[in-house]
Amino acid sequence: MDANGEERLVSRRVTIKEVAKRAGVGTMTVSRVVRNHGYVSDSVRIRVAEAVRELGYRPNGSARSLRLRRTDTIALIVSDITNPFFTTIARAVEDVASESDNLVLFGNTDESESSEIRYMEMVLQKGVDGVLLVPATDGRVALELAQASGLPVVAIDRRVSPAFDCVRCDSEGGAALLADRLLELGHRRFAILGGPDEVSTSHDRIQGFRLRAEAKGGQVTVYHGKLTVVDGERLTRVAMEANPRPTAIFAVNNFLSFGALNAVGALGLNVPDEVSVAGFDDLPESMVNFPFLTVVSQPAYELGALAARHLFERIQNPALPPQDLALPTTLRERSSTGPRR
Amino acid sequence: MDANGEERLVSRRVTIKEVAKRAGVGTMTVSRVVRNHGYVSDSVRIRVAEAVRELGYRPNGSARSLRLRRTDTIALIVSDITNPFFTTIARAVEDVASESDNLVLFGNTDESESSEIRYMEMVLQKGVDGVLLVPATDGRVALELAQASGLPVVAIDRRVSPAFDCVRCDSEGGAALLADRLLELGHRRFAILGGPDEVSTSHDRIQGFRLRAEAKGGQVTVYHGKLTVVDGERLTRVAMEANPRPTAIFAVNNFLSFGALNAVGALGLNVPDEVSVAGFDDLPESMVNFPFLTVVSQPAYELGALAARHLFERIQNPALPPQDLALPTTLRERSSTGPRR
DNA sequence: TTGAAAGCGCTAACAT
DNA sequence: ATGTTAGCGCTTTCAA
C-alpha cells in the first residue's frame, strides 16, 4: 500500500478531486460511488473504489455539512453528566444516535441558565441537527432560541411550555405512590427535601407527595435547597432538628437522597429504624444493589432512548405537533424504609 | 425587534452577506467585527453590530470549519459512559474543553475494537481537532488510523504503544499498595477478579498485586472475565468454591467489584468478617459514602482534565514528543476489608 | 452513464 | 480602514 510514496509525508487530507484524477473520472462520479447513489457503470465504480482505497480518501465532513445543511450530529445538554440519572440517559441517547450513524455532543449546565444559553448558541452555530435539553429551571430562553432558528429540540425530564416537545416521567404520580406506601407503614410526619420550585420535577414531586400525604392525615414540611449532595446533607440536619422529628424523609432527587443518607449516618441515626429515607431516581443498574435505598425509580434508559427517537422523528418532520410524553415510574422498596417505630 | 417582518417566517439562516448588505459594508468588515479581529472604525463597527443583532446573525460553523480546517470540537471515546470512572473523566474533559469554547463528542465502544474503529472513522470524517481514546484492548488500529491522518490523539487510562500520548494511573503501584495492606491484615489466600489480559490496566493490576503478595508469602489465584458486573458475580462464585477459600478478593475494576459484592451477599457471606473485598476505581464523589468498599482510588477527574489539557497542547503543537503520564493512586480503606478471621 | 458549472458561507491574501 | 477575489471540498442542477 501507499505505492505512490510522494506527498503523503505530511498526510494532507485527500480530496475528492485527487481521487477523481487518479481514477480518471469527474468528481461527480466519485461522489456517486462514495455515497452509493446514482448511476455509475460497474467498471468505473470499481476503478473509483480502488482509487478511494489507495488514496485513503475520506469525505470532508465540514464541506458536506456546508453543502447539505446537515451535520448528522445532535447535542445533549444536561445539568450534570455525573448524575447517574443523566449518565444513563446519555448512554441511551448515544445508542440510538449511533444506530443512524449520528454523533452526539454533550454539555453540562450545572443548572445555570446562562450556561444553558451559551451551549445552545454554540450548537446553533455548529449546526447540529437537533438538541436534547434538560432545562435548567424552565429552559424558556434556550428553547425559544432554538425555535427561532428552526432547530428541532426536545426537552427531557422537566416539563416545559406546551409549545415544545417533552419526554419525562410522571413525577407527581410517582411521588404519590411513595406517599401511599409510607403512610401504609405508619408514617405521619414527613420531611421533603426539595429543589428550586421552578424545576418542574421538584415541584411536581413535592406536590404529588404532599397532596396525597396530607389527604390521608400526614403532616408535611418542605425544605428547599439546590439539587446537590451538600444541600441534601444540610437540609436533613435542619429537618431532623424539628420537634417532634419527622419519621420519614423524602428526597426529590438522587443527589439530595445521597446527602440525606450521609447526614442521618453522621447524626448516628439508624435507617430505617429511627428514620426512613426514600428518594427519587434510581442508581445505575450496575450499582443498584448497594445503598439499599428505597426509591421511585424512573426508566432512565427508556426515557433517553425515547427522547432521542422522538428528536429524530421531529428532525425528519418538523411539522409534527409538539408532544408531552410522560413515562410511568416504579416504586422500588428496599431497606432504607420501614414501619414507623 | 424584527422590524422587517418579511422573510422570517421560515427562519432561513442569515448569512454574512445579508448582514453586510444591511450595514452597507463588505462581508470582510462584518467578519472582522464578528471575530473582533482587524481594523474597523468605531462608527462602522457599531453599524455592523446593530445589523448582526437585528438580523440575528450567527456564523455558519460548517463554512467556518471548511475554511479554517478546524472545528473547535474534540471527541471522547470510552468503553461505557455509565461506568462512573469514565463518567467522571467525561465531566472533566468537558469542563476543560468548555474553557476554550470547545465542544465534546462522545461515543461508547463497549470494549469492542470494531466499534472503536468505527467511531474513529466517523470523527476523522467529521474533522474533530483531536481525540481522547480509552482503547479497547491496545487500541492499535484506531490509534494508527488517527496518526496516519495527522489527527492528534491521547490515550486515556490504558497503556498503549510509546508512539502515542497516554494519560493514566499507576495501576501496578496501586495494586501493590493494596496487597501490602491486605497482607498486613493477615490475609494470605487471595482471589483476583481480572479482565482480559490485553487490557493493560487489568494486566498491570494483577501483576502489581500478585508480585507483591507472592513475594510476601501470599497465594494468589487469578480469575479472568469481562469487565462487567455479571462477570464479577460469576467469577466470585467460582472463586469462593475453592477449598480452602480465599479470605480476600481483589477486583481489578469497579464493575467487577460491584459484581463481587452482589455475589458474596447472595452467598450469604459477611463482609468483611468472612471475606474481605477490595476494588480498583472509586465511586463518583456524590456516592462515595455508600458501598463501604475499600478501593484503590484513581483521581478520575484530574486524569480526565490532564488528558484534555494534554490533547489541546498537542493540537497546538503536533511536534511534541509523545508522553506517558502516570498519576498516583490512593488506597481508601473502608469497611469491606478487615483482618483475617 | 458521465461531467461541467455553480455555489453553500466563510476568511486569508491582497488590493485600495 | 475597507472591499474584492479566490477558494476551502462537496453536491445539486443541468447538459451532453
Account of the 3D structure:
2 copies of one chain form a homodimer. The radius of gyration of chain A is 26 Å and the shape is elongated. Helices cover 44% and strands 17% of the residues of chain A. The longest helix of chain A is centred in the C-terminal third of the chain and has 17 residues, at 300-316. The first copy, chain A, has 341 residues and is an alpha/beta fold. Chain A folds into 3 domains: 1-59, 434 Repressor (Amino-terminal Domain); 69-169 and 300-327, Response regulator (Rossmann fold); 171-297, Rossmann fold, CATH 3.40.50. In chain A, α7 (140-148) links the parallel β3 and β4 (153-156). Chain A has 12 helices and 12 strands. Chains A and B meet through α4, α5, β2, α6 and α11 of A and α4, α5, β2, α6 and α11 of B. Chain A binds a DNA duplex (16 and 16 nucleotides) through residues 13, 15-17, 25-29, 31-32, 35, 38-41, 44, 59-60, 62-69.
